[in-house]
Inverse folding.
């Protein structure tokens, strides 16, 4: 099969043997996959990654030795594979298993390939009314919805989604159903307009410092700030915008270190919440019921054979979602 490999900061297209499903697994034929910021960071050296990346995808079950009824079903899959028997797996689930592998990120070849194997237990069938181009958003939408599962968010809370990248837009559009006054703040009018069209209040400024000052003047500090800037200095800006005893939800992962004055966290007694993956069932329901429209986030689609060009397009400043089709 043809596959993409990241190694030492370079992207290459290679031929690899087709993977074979083991007991309890399915062989998935990938139809479409999305490039996300994590993939861009992996290419820079995040997690010391080398191998086949890709974790946002829609596929068809090609083989499932133990579950033949699944063959032909259109699916996506959760990305964390735990051992299934340690105390963490038995209580919190595989997401934080100390022995886990993560699809396309750590120890498990990903979906930037014609075929990928995944445990049947992690598969989620894609409803007929969700096209492949939207199904690739199930994983990032699940992540965007996760703060609503981690925190007791109420309708009267002041909530800021900081950063108008794909994850910031998804967070604001999804969480407005819990927090109708949520504000999305960023520097790009084109991106902010996507959220505004879905009922989200937006604020724009040309500089990060100017944006923070304008937000403080208009709103004061927020109860909850979702830091989704994708930038190392994002946490420092979030601290400036969070009230004492407020909460910052950290969504950014960057290869570069994060400079921040942690004394602010102590003095203002601010709670920091790491937030990574989310509930696929919930995200699928949001797309099925049209609670979030992800279609405006798709910037370009490339044939899989043009993956290097797709990666370059995704790396452009201000780029939205770039997908590859098989």
């Amino acid at each position: 099969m043809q596959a993409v490999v990241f190694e030492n900061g370079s992207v290459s297209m290679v031929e690899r043997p087709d993977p074979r499903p083991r007991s309890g697994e399915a062989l998935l034929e990938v139809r479409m996959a999305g490039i996300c910021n994590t993939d861009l960071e992996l290419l820079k050296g995040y997690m010391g990654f080398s191998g086949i990346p890709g974790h946002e995808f829609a596929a068809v079950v090609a083989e499932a030795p133990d579950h033949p009824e699944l063959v032909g079903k259109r699916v996506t899959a959760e990305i964390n594979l735990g051992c299934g028997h340690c105390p963490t797996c038995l209580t919190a689930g595989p997401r934080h298993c100390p022995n886990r592998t993560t699809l396309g990120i750590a120890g498990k070849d990903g979906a930037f390939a014609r075929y990928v194997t995944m445990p049947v237990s992690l598969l989620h069938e894609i409803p007929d009314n969700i096209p492949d181009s939207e199904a690739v958003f199930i994983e990032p939408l699940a992540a965007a919805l996760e703060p609503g599962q981690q925190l007791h968010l109420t309708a009267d809370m002041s909530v800021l989604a900081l950063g108008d990248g794909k994850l910031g837009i998804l967070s604001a559009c999804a969480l407005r159903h819990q927090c109708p006054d949520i504000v999305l703040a960023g520097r790009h009018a084109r991106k902010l307009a996507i959220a505004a069209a879905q009922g989200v209040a937006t604020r724009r400024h040309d500089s990060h410092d100017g944006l923070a000052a304008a937000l403080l003047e208009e709103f004061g500090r927020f109860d909850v700030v979702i830091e989704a800037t994708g930038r190392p200095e994002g946490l420092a800006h979030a601290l400036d915008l969070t009230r004492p005893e407020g909460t910052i939800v950290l969504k950014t992962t960057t290869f570069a270190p994060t400079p921040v004055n942690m004394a602010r966290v102590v003095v203002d007694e601010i709670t920091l919440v790491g937030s990574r993956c989310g509930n696929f069932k919930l995200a699928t329901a949001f797309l099925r019921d049209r609670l979030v429209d992800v279609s405006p986030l798709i910037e370009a689609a490339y044939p899989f054979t043009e993956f290097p060009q797709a990666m370059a397009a995704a790396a452009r400043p201000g780029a939205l979602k770039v997908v590859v089709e098989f």
